[in-house]
Amino acid sequence: MINKRIISRLFASAMILLMLCSCSIKKPGIPPQSVAALPQENAASAKAQIRAELDAASGSGVFRIENISRIIVASADPDEGVKSTVALAADLYDSSDAFGKSLNAKSDLFSSKTDGDIVLIEDDSLFAEDYIRIITEKNIYLFYGPEKDCNGLLYGLQDILKLCMNSSDGLLKCGKTDFSPDTKERTLMLDCARKCWSVKWIKNLISEMSWLGFNALELHLTEDQGIRANIWQDKNGKTVPDCNGNDFSFLCGGKKVSWNEDYYEDPKAEYSRDDIVEIAEWAKRCHIDIIPSVDFPGHSGRLIYACESKDGFSFKYKGKTYSISGNEKISADGSQSNTVDISSESVRNLTYAVTEAYASFFKGFGCDRFDIASDEVSVDDSGWSEYARSNGGSTMFDGYIVYVNSLCDILKDMGYTVRANNDFLFSQKTNIPIDKELQICYWKPTDSDYGSAEYLISDGRTVFNCVESFCYYVLRQSKSGYDARSPECGWWDFHHSTAKRVFCGCGGNCGYLSCNEPGGWNPSKLWGFSSRKKTTASAENLGGAYFYIWGDWAKWDTEENIFFRQDELSLVRRLWSSSAKMIDWDADKSLSWDEFKKYIDKIEYSPLIAN
To answer: What is the mean pLDDT of residues 172-197?
Structure first.
């Protein structure tokens, strides 16, 4: 399968398909395994017909876009995944106005095809996200894998549309393209705890993610400044108890923090249960998996504030009732008041109950991955040592690890694969082994022997590239007055995460002597722009890569401006660069930055974006 992915691969990224129009095209041969996958009664005629078309084509052969009239699935009885994918593609085609007419989509035997059809053929040798596209003078053939998710089928149909939208003369060059993404999981994390993005905006973001080839959306649900996903109330305010029979709607809302006095979100803003259902259903239609995320025991300011504002309350967890009195201490002792006290049985079980409520809710949408974050934790509470000793450890840090492992156990029992951030989990050694199945979101590169990317990989961890130098889009201003999204903002590493620098680097001209990555981002390279230790993850260890949208200063920019602005702070341009590099690590080697920008000018936004 590895050879198939390399041989005959003109481009691996949807972002560089336009180059087909200017490259010399060899006469492609039809893969014999593809023909063999056709229904038996059609295999011989299909092979003969396609070969005849290919033999008649030359390097200068072209297909006329105006001839496209149908999308035909070469099967008398395609499964529901294929049907829904083709229906989504048909909506994209019709919404694009690329053809000036609506396309008829139907399923039938291969023998019913006519000139001008886009012919879809299942090929059981292809993986779920692969496709092979062959353009002849008469037809466009798309071979896709049989997996039920049909992502390869969607990407192939979208890329045909992108070629059509970008054609200046209404013609497509004849030829063959093999597509197979380099990075398995391509995730966008949306901070919808600090900033309560509108449902419409999130659905537009999902449409754009699908258009660009992302395949997962992580919803970050709890933070110091807010818990916005009120799954305990519908849009009419009716209470919907969770899996343990609780109503935690009082936890939802926002909180102003000392470092954001001017740009905080409306404290009353939240999503109803129906809002989250609408988002999840749209994501499913667009082939985007949802990954729920909570952040405990740190970053828990909103939960602590909401609990301390009530005059006591009770809740249920695993059939037992727990009570928290009005004067009970919720937060841990020490330097960070936004960390919950995990040594308290009632507080600890409250976080378990909230986590399980979200996990159970999203399980209903087929979710199978969960992020517990667990980053930037303060461990100064001596009570955590006692908690550790009662669970086989001894130190305060051991207590923290016991807690993280317990969250893993809860979620694994529910069928989830669990991941967390690297920065604090591996900040020091522990007497309690960290759950061996816990995957790591590697956002903060460290050169220490314990916690480095090299160590994590040697420990057998699945690692996700989330390195802040290249993967962050943060709504915030630096102390020096720069927008955190600006390439001039040296306060954080974020100045390296602009669209151009992600795609092709700074060329050594960013002005920072410590910069050691002038050639652009590569998801397999687990270091930041100034890291000393350089570790490259293999395909076996690299679970995927992330693009993070953080809402630290929620009102720092408007939704519309964030989505549609065209300057160097453009969100969507950065998504294009990130997805291009996730799909093809060497995309910038085949296409210059100026050519890349020119390519996306006409197709920057998904045709399904709602104004």
So the answer is: 96
- In which element (H, E) is residue 383 found? helix 383-389
In this structure, are residues 69 and 103 in contact, taking their beta carbons and an 8 Å threshold? yes
Q: Report CA Rg, the chain.
A: 26
pLDDT of 426 above 70: yes
| Nearest residue to 572 via CA among 11, 9, 81, 15 | 15
pLDDT more than 90, % of the chain: 78
d(CA 516, CA 528): 8
Q: Which residue has the tokens 């900040």?
A: 427
Task: State pTM to two decimals.
Answer: 0.93
Q: How far apart are CA 1 and CA 10, in angstroms?
A: 17
Torsion of the alpha carbons at 470, 473, 478 and 483, rounded to the nearest 10: 110
Q: Which helix (DSSP H) or strand (DSSP E) does residue 546 occupy?
A: strand 542-550
SS3 480: coil
- DSSP strand E in 192-264: where? 216-220, 222-223, 226-227, 229-230, 253-254
Q: Strand, coil or helix: what is 93?
A: helix
466: closest CA among 553, 534, 552, 525?
525
Sequence letter at residue 117: D
Q: How many CB atoms lie within 10 A of CB 39?
A: 16
Cα–Cα distance list, 5 to 11, 14, 123, 277 (Å): 10, 15, 14, 37
Instruction: Give the phi and the psi of residue 26 in degrees, each rounded to 5.
Output: -80, 155
| 55 exposure class (CB count in 10 Å sphere: 0-12, 13-18, 19+) | exposed
Candidates 374, 294, 297; CA nearest to 331 is 297
pLDDT at residue 569, rounded to an integer: 96
State the maximum Cα–Cα separation within the chain, in Å, rounded to a whole number. 83
Per-residue pLDDT tens digits for 285-311: 999 999 999 999 999 999 999 999 999
- Say if residue 401 is exposed, middle or buried (CB neighbours under 10 Å; 0-12, 13-18, 19+): buried
State how far the Cα of 133 lies from the Cα of 223, in Å rounded to an integer.
Answer: 44
